[in-house]
Amino acid sequence: MLTSVILLASISGEALAACSEPYLGNGPLNTLLAGNTVCSPAYCSGAGCQWQEQHRGGSQLWDFKNGGSSTSKVGEWAIRGNEITYLYGPGGGPYPYRVKDNGNGTYSFCGSNGEFTFTRKLGQTGC
Questions:
Q1: How confident is the model over 93-122, as a mean pLDDT?
Q2: Distance separating alpha carbons of residues 71 and 65, to the nearest angstrom
């Protein structure tokens, strides 16, 4: 039982460490997301993605559906300081996140509702 507790504590500690400082600031966040598509979970493709969101100009957030065969506007996004905030449809949000560069080609949205790993695809395309 003690081994299980120690293992659980180490896994929990790693999860918490993934969303610890330093976080990306305003400039790097804008470069990472503006005009690009976020794919989650990290390294997913097509229908294997839980979500694929394009960060279009004018703060528009568009979702790729059915593995990228169709798109629709689902909300808005805004960067303020070192946070990105999402608003979805009527009554969805705000959802603020800080973004961590995991250093291995993946990133994490870190917020009060958990951590979401993602990768970025350049441009407004599917994952």
A1: 95
A2: 6
CA dihedral 32, 52, 103, 10 (to 10 degrees): 140
Joined tokens for residue 55:
């960060």
Strands 37-40, 114-121: pairing is: antiparallel
Residue at 28: amino acid letter: P
The single residue listed with the structure tokens 């390294």 is 43
120 falls in which pLDDT band (50, 70, 90)? Answer: very high
Do the beta carbons of residue 51 and residue 42 sit within 8 Å? no
Element (H, E) at 54: strand 51-55
The model's pLDDT over 32-72, given as tens digits with 9 standing for 90+, comes to: 999 999 999 999 988 888 889 999 988 999 988 755 567 88
Pull the structure tokens for residue 17.
Answer: 């460490």
